[in-house]
Design a protein that fits this description.
Number of strands: 4
Largest sheet: 4 strands, parallel
Radius of gyration: 16 Å
Distance between the termini: 19 Å
Helix content: 25-40%
Number of helices: 4
Strand content: 5-15%
Structural class: alpha/beta
Shape: globular
Length: about 170
């Protein structure tokens, strides 16, 4: 909920956040297919000012990302039959809603998305943790889901920001 106590227990991720993560992962895949694999690609999640809640969100997002990766590892190579997997079917629905009009069909996305997002990571940025580091030199840009609160509202640069998911009240200085 928008209003919550600092001891709130984050159980299941909201459907809108799961959708935002799927849309982000597909966007990264499309960028790679367009030849932009050397650029960083990031998602921002800002849902609470409490660092404990941010840590829980980071953990739930990581778990959901692993579910998606596991489904892709096992079933993505099955082509049309891979759509029997609920995670792959959900990815395709997200692609249909957001990207179906673009130059890449679903078969191209399904064939390349695992390699594209296999190294994706979820990091927390706040007063007690800063897992965000773009300094790694590589020919492949990082794929990062950044979870935080006030620290993300204060001039921090998120490279290659592609998707933002906000769920919190802001103050005048945000």
């Amino acid at each position: 909920p928008i209003k919550h106590i600092k001891d709130y227990n984050v159980g299941e991720l909201p459907d809108s956040l799961k959708e935002a993560l799927r849309v982000f992962l597909i966007a990264r895949c499309i960028r790679n297919l367009r030849g932009q694999s050397a650029s960083h690609c990031s998602m921002l999640v800002n849902a609470s000012r409490f660092t404990g809640i941010q840590g829980q969100l980071r953990n739930r997002l990581h778990e959901y990302l692993i579910e998606i990766l596991d489904s892709l590892r096992v079933n993505a190579s099955l082509g049309v039959d891979g759509l029997r997997d609920t995670q792959i079917a959900a990815l395709k629905k997200s692609w249909m809603r957001e990207y179906a009009e673009l130059e890449f069909d679903w078969a191209a996305i399904q064939a390349s998305i695992l390699d594209t997002i296999a190294a994706a990571k979820v990091v927390e940025v706040n007063s007690r943790s800063n897992g965000l580091d773009y300094s790694e030199s590589s020919t492949i840009g990082q794929t990062v889901i950044v979870v935080g609160g006030f620290s993300l509202s204060r001039g921090l640069t998120i490279e290659g920001l592609t998707v933002t998911w906000f769920l919190r009240n802001t103050m005048m200085y945000d």
